């Protein structure tokens, strides 16, 4: 930290003139109001904030009342490397527990790179008694930390992020009734306890769940606005989520249960959904029953993102077209096609014919609100080209379509042929620009 230091010099008065008495300029830095000092301290890394104690006697313990503390990798790297990481961590925590005064509203701890996970039960207990509202805990992947019972006594918690730990609520746990956002990444928790945890958080608005539960997910959350899921899935149920506006389901595993959950039945529970992100596996999971039209259209859906999918597979293509058809107010579409080199099976002609027939069946559909389209990994297959033709012909206010071929898709000559074909497609929007990345 760069410390500001004042320099003073004495200038001799001209001959024949008397010296004038002057007072020493006040120490502006030490006389700043407490709220200004606190604002300065909170914008510094914790190590630099502690080092301000050398500025003056008044500044010696200013860091001790910081309401927000971050102990991350940068802090471990800046401390003495001659001492083992565990001892360094213990020393820092000891000084924190013994010197800090006042409430701690936000605390972030990352020890993901330390070889061992030090026992921090006392720290969790300390935070639970000091009004913690925003808590971020990240532990080593190979040494999951079991949260102590004192963790479940953080009654003022509003934002919680947990990484690589074990969550096992005690029987008397009544939930975090002030919790607004929850992020669980690689957290070990049973489906039963997870369901109980969510149901006991009545104000929950944002939920992120990455690779934490491997069987059943049941969520009842009337205030939930955003749900981001990534990981394996056997069963999912979202009930009583009338405010859900943003949904992302990215499934990294493939199960025999794929196709057992109908897309229409699943989406009818989200009347105000605005943003939807699905990947190949989640589309396959919902692609079993694809009706001609949703019982009630997705009239609020504005952005549709499909990643790592195959437009050459009948069920996936059918689900993709179904989502577009059932969303009359779409403004953005983003589709990322998988790299064909990763797949051995090739699409047979009768499947392609069935997909093309479904595209032709959308002749009565008009996308009156679609403004932007981004297609990545396009190789020029017939289903892909038919989809591009459809989107250009049915989007009267489309302003830009960005098309990026896959990294290993075709020679430059092939890409030029694809571009030449696309330029011949009819465009419903006179302002539509097609940006095809040749390289």
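Q: What amino acid sequence fits the structure above?
A:
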């Amino acid at each position: 930290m760069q410390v500001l230091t004042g320099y003073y010099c004495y200038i001799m008065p001209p001959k024949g003139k008397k010296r004038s008495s002057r007072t020493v300029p006040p120490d502006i830095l030490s006389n700043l109001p407490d709220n200004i000092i606190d604002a300065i301290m909170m914008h510094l890394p914790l190590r630099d904030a502690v080092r301000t104690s050398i500025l003056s006697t008044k500044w010696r313990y200013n860091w001790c009342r910081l309401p927000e503390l971050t102990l991350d990798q940068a802090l471990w790297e800046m401390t003495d490397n001659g001492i083992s990481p565990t001892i360094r961590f213990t020393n820092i925590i000891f000084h924190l527990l013994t010197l800090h005064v006042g409430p701690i509203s936000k605390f972030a701890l990352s020890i993901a790179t330390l070889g061992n996970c030090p026992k921090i039960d006392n720290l969790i207990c300390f935070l639970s008694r000091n009004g913690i509202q925003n808590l971020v805990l990240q532990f080593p992947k190979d040494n999951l930390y079991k949260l102590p019972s004192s963790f479940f006594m953080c009654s003022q918690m509003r934002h919680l992020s947990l990484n690589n730990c074990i969550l096992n609520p005690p029987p008397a746990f009544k939930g975090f009734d002030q919790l607004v956002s929850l992020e669980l990444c690689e957290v070990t928790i049973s489906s039963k306890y997870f369901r109980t945890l969510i149901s006991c958080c009545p104000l929950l608005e944002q939920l992120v769940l990455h690779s934490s539960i491997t069987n059943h997910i049941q969520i009842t959350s009337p205030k939930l606005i955003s749900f981001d899921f990534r990981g394996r899935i056997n069963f999912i149920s979202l009930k009583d989520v009338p405010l859900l506006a943003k949904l992302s389901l990215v499934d990294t595993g493939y199960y025999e249960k794929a196709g057992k959950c109908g897309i229409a039945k699943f989406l009818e529970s989200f009347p105000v959904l605005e943003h939807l992100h699905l990947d190949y596996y989640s589309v396959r999971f919902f692609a079993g029953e694809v009706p001609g039209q949703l019982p009630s259209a997705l009239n609020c859906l504005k952005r549709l993102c499909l990643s790592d999918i195959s437009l050459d597979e009948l069920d996936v293509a059918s689900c993709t077209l179904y989502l577009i058809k059932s969303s009359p107010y779409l403004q953005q579409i983003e589709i990322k096609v998988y790299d064909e080199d990763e797949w051995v099976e090739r699409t047979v002609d009768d499947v392609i014919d069935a997909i093309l027939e479904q595209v032709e069946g959308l002749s009565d559909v008009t996308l009156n609100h679609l403004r932007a389209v981004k297609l990545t990994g396009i190789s020029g297959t017939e289903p892909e080209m038919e989809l591009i033709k459809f989107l250009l012909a049915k989007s009267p206010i489309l302003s830009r379509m960005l098309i990026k071929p896959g990294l290993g898709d075709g020679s430059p000559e092939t890409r030029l042929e694809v571009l030449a074909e696309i330029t011949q497609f009819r465009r419903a929007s006179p302002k539509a620009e097609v940006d095809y990345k040749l390289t």
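Q: And what stands out in the fold?
A: The mean pLDDT is 80.
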